[in-house]
Amino acid sequence: MAYIALYRKWRPGTFGDLVGQEHISRTLSNAITTGRIGHAYLFSGPRGTGKTSTAKILAKALNCEHGPTPEPCGKCAACQKINDGTSMDVFEIDAASNRGIDEIRDLRETVKFAPVDGRYKVYIIDEVHMLTTEAFNALLKTLEEPPAHVVFILATTEAHKVPPTIQSRCQRYDFKRITVEEIRGRLETVVAEMGLKAEAEALDMIAIQADGGLRDALSLLDQCSALAEGELTAARVRQVLGLIGHDWIYKLTEAIYARKSQVALGVLAELLRDGKDLKQVLTELSLHLRSLMIYQATGTLEQMDLYAEPDEVLQEQGKFFSTEDLMAMLKRLHEALAEIKWSPQPRITVEVALMALCNPVTSGAVPQAAGAAVDDGRLAQLEAKLSQMAAQLAARPVAAAAQAGTRAPAAQRSAAAAQGTAPRADVSVEPMPQAEVVPITASDAEVWDRLLMTLKERNKMPVFACMNQGQFAGMSDTQFFVKFKGVLMADLAMRNYRALLEQLLEELTGRPLHLHCSGEDMPLTPPPKPVKKKTAPPPAEEPSIHVDLDAMPPEERAPLEKAFEIFGDHVVEIEDDKQ
Predict the structure, then answer these.
(1) Cα dihedral sign, 333-339-340-345
(2) 3-class SS at 102?
(3) What is the CATH number of the domain that holds 158?
(4) Could you tell me the residue range of the domain that residue 80 belongs to?
């Protein structure tokens, strides 16, 4: 007798044999018991989770000689024919190869005929999302109102590709991924029936590699058992499946933590000499780092379907990295996994990724705080330039007004010219205090350090970035001096941040201190306060002239109305001074 693959030999025969889909088996069993059998079902879910098996079980439940029953016997002629695929009433159609409108038209013709042996004609359309749009349209009417003896079962792994008009005519059942524990339990049953000894770790590896599909797990077990020689060990499973193994992954993790690029690249080279796959190296390293991240967050890996690892290793290597580091490392590994698909030299891509993990600073992974400080420093410089430009623009209309309006006496203008300064009509300049040369003590320097730390703790990053570019120049009982390399930063600190900084200095020292910032040996002070000058009383208002707009023609009234709207309606007479 020919050998039967395990996934075929152990295909579920009843609803009770389904693994991990109790919600679906219970619902279908109740529907059959109560006689509420639908005319169309849509089974969706990942591969290997039991969609087609459930469809065949439902077909047997409807056509069993002892039915309809939720527990088909599997021994009667109808059940045997369905199991063998020779039933004249159960049609299993592969939509991937029969996806055109002609095949659906043939199906519509055969639907009209009554069943040959059983009670129902069951049409199982696998991978139904592969049908063309025309084929779906041809199926619509038949699917909505089929004959009473017909049941449609549509199976798909991509339900979103099935048109909503089709889905609305079906009862939809979503098959979920099978957990590692459920797959391992099924594998233990199969191994026991085979009379094969198996290590628990070996079954765990197969269950994890199956990725939620029981059919994949049985296929992997079938493959590994061929090399088992009476006992299925973890080493044999690792050899057959091409897995890297915990020891190598732990070595890579330790090399990354110690920032030993040479060790990490040596481990990679040795794995490649053993025939390991580059993608598998990155995948298992990602799974290990994910386990460390989850273990840090929850303290356990139970019911997480994670990379099977001992708690001792997780406790030890979990101290190597912070959660933020692990997330950044996982992101970099996922980028490398995407790159190696298209890279002409995948090994170089993996080596670059490992080098980046071993040298996070040189690889451009600047810490967040440092990156923020650099950005804030640039922002502070831009703010300083904008402040200087705004001051220059504000001074222009004042100078223009001084030239056009107020005329300074000749003596005053000559004195101003001798001093090299331009007189201003509305501003009195206060003398700028000179920075005193005072010795810097350890306690004074501590105040400066505490000031910077307080700005950082209170998230005043623009102020911190500005002051961090200055140099503490000492302090007295009433003054606090800071030197900058340029005038712009000193000007920014005095104009925008002086009030905040003096408030913090008072909190730190317990006494009011006046801040003085200088750049290029030119002390700066806050902008001078404007002083109101004594002005002559306004001249007596000249009598206005009444303008009767209603008496004016429209072409003359329109511009006057516009002028009154802009300048007001106070009209005075202007004397002509021409001789």
Answers:
(1) negative
(2) helix
(3) 3.40.50.300
(4) 6-174
